[in-house]
Amino acid sequence: MRTTLLTLLITLISLCGLMAQNITVSFTGKSQDNAYMRLDSIKVYDLSQQWERTLTYPDTVMIAILNSIESQESADFSVSQNTPNPFNGRTEVAISIPYDGTTTIQISDINGKIHAQSTQNLNAGTHKFDINLAAPQTYILSASINGKTSSIKMINTGKGCANSISYLGQTLQQKLIVNGLFELGDDMKYIGYTAYGGILYASYSVTQRQYSSEDITLVFPISINTTPVETPDVSTLPATDISQTTATIHGRATFSAPLQATGFYYGTSTNNMSNNITTTQSPSGTFSYLLSGLEQGTTYFYRAYTIHNDVIYTGEIKSFTTDSPNGNHDITITFTSRGHSTNYQYLYLYIPLDSIKVQNQTRNWEQTLIFPDTIMNVDFGNTKLNINGNASSGDRMIYTGYTSYRGTIYSEQTQRSLYSGTIEFMFEVPFCDDKYTHIEINDCEPITYNGITYTQTGHYEIGHYQTTYHCDSIIILDVNIGDYIFNEVRISTCDESYTLNGITYTESGSYQQTLTSVHGCDSVVSLILSIGNGFTDERDGNTYCTITIGNQVWMGENLRYLPSVNRGTDESWSESRYYVYDYQGTNVDEAKDTYNYAEYGVLYNFIAAQTACPAGWHLPSDSEWTELEIYLENNGHNFDGYVDTDNDRETHNVIAKALASTYNWSTSDIENTPGLLQEKNNSSGFNGKPAGWKTLNGRFAYINENGTWWSSTQYSNHHWDRYIHFTRTYVTRSHNENHIGMSIRCIQD
Fold it and tell me: What is the average pLDDT across 527-554?
């Protein structure tokens, strides 16, 4: 874990005539085994004056003036010139605001076209933003708050990843402590907070009288170098009984041992959930709290928490919006689905929903929800949840659900007015699959079968029957006529030779053989051969084929290096973890004996991925992946036949099939995707297999649907990766957190 020493300075000023005494108190966070811990916030209590204040990083400086405490705010609203300027696709800008409020940032070109926009609730102070712009030109960045606007001109000379505005954080700025008084010798209490491993921890409290300057160490009840123990499971549940000024919020805490307390944090922004409610001292299961005195038509954010051994554990952040004076309120619709066979002879309790198309006929817009986002939220005051578009209670709506069942896509539609509730789709799916019987006949001349003469190659339906269960039984006649049959065979082997039809080849290349079938028809076989390209990993004896693509040499298989193996639930952001898909043990030999290890290799978190490749090889960077993609696009591997020459991986990326292996993909009916006509995959020889990945909460997912591979290049606190999906024509560039488990494809130094 990267540790940071965060120092909080409290200056206590005593005025005596014209003389002033400064008292400085600094704080250091440490774990029980003396490792430095970053202090995310500190709660300060003046027990004598009966006030408290929480300081949140990065506002970590406060001043208490003896018997008179005032707030200090920046007097001006301004946008600083971005740096660098001109810039190559990416730059940073700082914005100073004089008071808390909603700030809108907009980037447009000189013709007024808007390229990016962001609206956020910000505290008074100076805030930094990361700017990415895709096209080189002159831009105007404008920021506004409460009718005030400030603008700068920016010049982009290169290409960025996208048009985006990302919040980087608030710069260190001195702020005064408010709503309280201080006198020398007051009884003070200090508690620090830090987020470690996804869990919020509270330090042991320090209580003392404050007379002089000193350094205080706040100790957290955790040890960095020990294995994590069982922790409470906390969930934030949806709010209910929402009115104009009240709402009931809910949470759930489960643990095998007694808990100290449960409660909620809440506020009007995710950065300001400072209100703290303790609901009970002996919680069990679900707990709730009725909020009152709320503002009408206002969005509130909240999260549940529980305390065990003085450590705070939190659930996810949720939100609700109080009713407006006119009675409008948020609408939440939950979608479920079931299935039935023809004539409702058989019912299925559950059919998975893949996606839902939502159409608003009143306002003429539509949007598609993709699994697992199968709950639709409509926020009338904000329209920034998972449905974007104007809406009002009672609008005429059409909902169409889609499911892929036994390789076939089914849809079901319902129409209703817009209001909260549950919509259930009832899909008609067959009780049994159609049964096809194929009769195959081949000849060099026209073929007569059952009195009918066939002169062309093709598939002919010659019989159709139906069982009592409404299952179709279809007989297909497969006719192959011709005197010339051409087959292409691609072989990549680590051996030094390859034999086909009695002929042995010892060099890579393209070879042709002419064979004669039993019907006397010629069959020309074109053998595209890559041999002798093998590498043996001295660490474990695993041998890998290699493939040269352009100027790069890649391993032709996923890495199988497995020094240890972890259960899916054993996750880490800072230590190496090795996984084999669906294996939930810790025995390396057992894991290596599984089909998924032999076929798909090992899944690595990013910490393990950094050092997993053998000597002479390395984890490819984002730019090395891009070089591979551009080479394939420029050299005939786009599967729509287009040759792209602009050295941009995104403009015409139809290379997923070129990288995908020729088997084990889920079936797709979309042209030029890995799941359709899989035997035509892998024109590049890369042989990318659908190994799936290890996602959150110990879950293995998406085997046979996608292949994912790490890159070594960092993006924010994530790292770039590449993945191929069975229904997509292109290679996707995305980024993931370090604890995710993905495949590795090594590239030669």
Answer: 85
